[in-house]
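Notes from the 1:1 (GR / supervisor)

We went over the backlog. Supervisor wanted to see one worked example end to end before approving the batch request, so GR pasted a single chain during the call. The sequence is below; no edits were made to it. Supervisor asked that the structure be written out right there so they could see what the output format looks like.
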Amino acid sequence: MKTNKVFLFLFAGVVALLLAVPGESPRAQSIQDLEKELQRIVKDLAQRFQEASVDWQQSLRNAGTARKEQPVSFMLQHKDGLELSPQQIKELKKLRSRFERESIRRDADIKVAKMELNELTEGDAIDLEKTEEKVREVERLRADQKLSRIHTIEDAKNVLRLDQRKKLAVLRASN
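Structure output shown during the call:
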């Protein structure tokens, strides 16, 4: 809903700018010329908005993940309540660090693959075979990222003793 409001606001601003441009007034131009210019401007704005939207979505996703969906960090934050040993803390930090490094690499790979997909879909003639292959690559990379997260969480749980896992469940339920 906010996206539509922002787009409409930007569109209204473009129209206002076109009408306020000194010199040759858009009113003096033919309607077709005005429509072409508006289409070009709106297409450019839409592309820029889409690129910014992808970055915003990623930032929001990361912000939400940082707060509530990182069990390894949660375990480390509650190390006293879980009674983690120094060796367990070391192992959990190692798991988290490894996942964060891999995640940064995978996020970059996903971003590059999306850029390549956008390039494949520009223009009049689209190579459907290459485009389909790139779509599958993007989705495979996303799936790999999710599976890596799941494996890291399971590895972290395996670091804990049974009594610590029960304490973890209670802590997670209370937060």
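Supervisor's comment: Residues 71-175 form one domain.
Batch request approved.
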